[in-house]
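User: I'm putting together a small comparison set for a docking exercise, and I want a reference complex before I start. The sequence is below, and the ligand is adenosine-5'-triphosphate. Could you produce the 3D structure with the ligand included, as structure tokens?
Assistant: Of course. I'll restate your input first, then give the structure tokens for the complex.
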Amino acid sequence: MSDTNEKVMANNFIHNFIDEDLENGVYKEVYTRFPPEPNGYLHVGHAKSICLNFGTAIKYGGKCNLRYDDTNPVKEDTEYVDAIEDDIKWLGFQWTEQLWASDYFETMYDAAVELIKKGLAFVDDLSADEIREYRGTLKEPGKESPYRNRSIEENMTLFNEMREGKYADGEKVLRAKIDMASPNINMRDPVIYRIVHASHHNTGDKWCIYPMYDFAHPIEDAIEGISHSLCTMEFEDHRPLYDWVLEKVGFWPNPPRQIEFARLNLTNTVMSKRYLKALVDDGSVVGWDDPRMPTIAGLRRRGYTPEAIRDFCDRVGIAKANSMVDIGLLEYCVRDDLQNKVESRNVIEDPIKVIITNYPENQTEMVTVENNKNVPEMGERQIPFSRELYVDGADFMEVPAKKYFRLFPGNEVRFKGAYFITCNEVVKNDDGSIKELLCTYDPETKSGEGFDGRKVKGTIHFVDAATAVPVTIRNYGYLMIEDENGENVLNPESLVEKQGFAEPSLAEAEPGERFQFFRHGYYYADPKDHKGGVAGGDGPLVFNRIVDLKSGYKPGN
Ligand code: ATP
Ligand code: MG
């Protein structure tokens, strides 16, 4: 169990329930589990569940299992299993045990037999469609299956034959015998076993009957001695069945308690493994770890920190009411985490050449800039300044807008760390585009101190043209945007790649390092593509924008 973050868990209503249970001696220790189905990569919604389950165990000095919910006979993808483990560890958590639900198939079978023997389960020959018709509606009770009153012996024989493979898929099912008139449709004789002739990654062809989730999940929890089974709200109406299964099977004297919480929904984000897999499969993104993906792997490759994601989950909090969280909160959390941690660098994204006409040719001097304006202890560094520089396209306007204080013809600005500079002339190419800006500097103003006390309103950054290093800059937007009907659709401009210039020190950045690019945002040297993904490698310099610098978003309280 990790002790990385005691504060990962602000108190919440689940903890109040747990406190009660501990006080009343219902459970001696808190034991939770995180139960992913290994059919895709984890997303930020899963992060909420991970922080809750592991965070709760840490808070109470308890345990938390990683359990793969592999009761569906699909092919296991070891890629997913490896990714799930990497993601949980990267978030800062360590499971007590790593387990597979499919290891419990024999016990689940015994539990089903126990229900049959108690007259609480029966083999049904109705088709799936008929079962649906018989189920009734919220307003009308269901109808009992004509096979409901088979004898225990007959049910035992048929269920055994189901196991032995005598029947085709869908020909028979095993149903719990509860109450077709229950106001809770989940209690109307739910199916608990179905026939599926398919190989399972773990049990191979040993089984051709597989337990349904509502039957399997409580048993998985009980076998592991889970005390509190935390799940999302859509299972609230399934809780009576969860409790029914464990009570009626009766193998476990102190069954777990299911508690539901609201799932995480984020604006501009689709959180469904199925949907995300489709994006990967159809090439809409470069993979599960595409920096635009809401997967934990994607956020990691984008440059998010585990601290930021844990802080986000903590701020979102745990409640019963479903709500839509503004993705601005996630962005706020990563800015908040990085602002005092990373150094700043001068990078020009849309270069415009500047010639300082009164600066000597073939001269370079070093000027001093701070590494992080919030944290003086992070020190300063020297960057070159000379006659030919680059400034950012956004820092120049030939015809200035109102209240534009940066560079325009006739205006004087401060070049950060260097001199006051005045733009005198715009030189154009034949096609009308800007070739270069002719400027002059005031030698008396080094480090921006106007000797005569005159002030300039704008400060802009620059890089020295002769020593600049070319960088590839990947500016990410939201993968999903709303169309005119309010539907989430893919954003055609979710990636804008630029070729820019950086101060020379950025050539030393290794894959996985983070910086603030002055005025632009927080950036991450791509772990796979920057320098070919190798420290000291000689591939191109490639940076992902983690988040821009906008801080319009203010978290509520
Ligand atoms: P998806 O629908 O995206 O495939 P899932 O719920 O099917 O998600 P599982 O692998 O079954 O994925 O989920 C593992 C755990 O994570 C479950 O306990 C589930 O409740 C939880 N979880 C999944 N999505 C969210 C979410 N958006 N917010 C909170 N918890 C979630
Ligand atoms: Mg699922």
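The radius of gyration is 31 Å. The chain is about 25% helix and 25% strand.
User: Thanks, that's exactly what I needed.
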